[in-house]
Design goal:
The chain is an all-alpha fold. Helix content is about 60%, strand content about 0%.
Length: about 150
Amino acid sequence: MTALNPNLEAVRKRQLGAIHIGKKKLGLDDDSYRAMLQRLTGKRSAAALGVEQLAAVIEEMRRLGFSTTRRRPPANGQARLIAVLWAEMYREGIVKNGTAKALDAFVKRQAGVEALEWLTPEGANKVIEALKSWRARGGKDGGCAMGGDSAGR
């Protein structure tokens, strides 16, 4: 692979780690794992995949039953701010579902990545601004900010 933006490389590393954990938790042998990669991406090695392809593999693993049972606290300041805003808005009654899964659904709608920890700084800014705007409206028109989905409301 060519050199990536350091933030994207950090996202890729987290995604690769999640894929390897998913492989183990799903009990996939090497042949089955590589066949799945081939079917989804046309490649037999996760190391050769881009961020979007890795996200597709993780999504397929989730469809097959893989889930992370424990979420680490956000590592960077922007992700921590997003988590804090989400929790505060939940306590204020603006967000109706304060779970990490609901936050991830909101993050996906706003920034196009599967989880809070995979946000780029630009994506995190987009999510932060969307949350601040939603909060300023006092939860009014939350359906618009939420893409019409009630996962986070």
